[in-house]
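Task card 7
Instruction: Convert sequence to structure tokens.
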Amino acid sequence: MTNRTDQATSQAPAVDSRGDWLDVILGGGGARNGAAVVSDDGESVSFTELAARVGGLQAALAAHGLVQGDRVVIELERSVSLIVAMLAVLDAGLTYVVLDPGQPAARRASIAVDCGAALRLTTASGDGPPRLAPSDWPRSGARRPARREPDDLAYIAYTSGSTGTPKGVAVPHGALAAYLDWCVATLPFRGDGVPLFATAAFDHAVTCIYPPLIKSEPVKLLPPVGAGQHLGTDLLERGPYSYVKATPSHLRFLSAEQRGALGSSALLVMLGGERSDAALVRSLRTDSPTVRIMNHYGPTEATVGCLTYEISPGAERDPVPIGFPMPHVDVRIEAGELVVGGVCAAAGYWNAAEARVDSGAPFSLADGKRWYRTGDQVAVDEDGVHVYLGRGDRQVKHLGQRIELDEIEHALVAVPTVDSAAAISVSDGLCAVVAPLVGAAQDEIKEALREVLPPAAVPRRIVRVDGVPVTPNGKRDVAAIGALVAVAAPVASDARSALAKIWCQILELEEVRDEMDFFDEGGDSLAVVELAEAIADELGQEIELGMLFENARFDRFVAAFETTTNAEVPDRA
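Output:
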């Protein structure tokens, strides 16, 4: 039996597309007291204090001469100041562009230029637009709201671009308000609040910040995920929650026991950002078989989410469907491709050259509505349930992030020692083949990529070739490229040596010794997932990510691996 989530499940008031939901948060609406409504590791604020902080920053924005429609870049870690900045910018009729401070500085600088930022709210130094650090914001002031029309831009979210540079998705207030309307009418709220542990540059954060504030619930800002080893502990210590939103990759940082405990500490677990699977869903129900679990699908161009599927207990299946369109979303299937339209559709992409929004392809106008071609291939079953099948282009999802293989290739050929290159997504992650000029070294190429690409987009393996294979008609020969990558994969003879080679590959080491610690040698959250993927691909063994966090020393990791798996290594000679 299917389970639709497109009907309201509460009597929450609708959110007005002019931005009146900000009046609910900042104007004193709803049941309020002096309790903390936004908290991080260092401070917490009540609704009254939050509104005062927003007013103080708005005074500073006005003093800098900003006018309605100006773009403001926000580069702050998860903190009370981050939430203050996002609300102040929106409420003042400005447009925010949130950037992750952990991204390469060159990438952040290029985006600030591309969007024509009038100001950067950041603690970082550097050239470019004027900067204003939180320490320089007035701590209180009178709120300065501006009238916001549905077509006015709320925010610009930069995603991986096929042209080699990030592209800015321009989201209007009307689309944002429609999504928030669905959230407050559909998601559960019992006063326990919602955690945010992902970067606010990922529109995932919209679901975790604004709906709970509208409903007078706290937003709990968790410490940076980092290598992921503390995510499960942090989540469980700060619970319980009304709901939790996470990517499947986030949840795999948790042990099976922690996932079960999380399922019992929240009314709803919302999955999104990448494909999920039935086994992961079942692991969330080990302690609480009836916990609500929802798959939430939507590209950034469809304003966070546009289809949902609530997974009934005992009805888990692979692949997990993306479900039904939300009430404010129109969908159609054209040649197997999902096309979404209506108020959910973004205005288009930011056109830096003309300082305006470009609503050309893959956006279009038809039937009086704006439509967006997702590039996702879907099927619809006999119950009307949409099932994601894959991509029709060169866009991939890795660790919950959308990545264009073309962007990786543009970055590769920009490296002086690389003549030509091709990127490919294989079972153990992102890989690349390069035809380097004399003197090119893999570590030098990777270092150059880390300067311009987000960490998730840096290939874990780079294979040197004499020339990138092409088909007779001059196009990339994907099969031949995949074969080259496969041939270059390490060959294992036993579990210990196989694991040693995988550690060396992931951490870029010449050798690994028993006393070496994975994280001391440079391992991070991405490397943890890559290690698990490589072990699954090379050794045919699935491991819990928690195994590495609990056994970071190589000798202990080998012992744990041999104890918890059958430790049989396939003969690939």
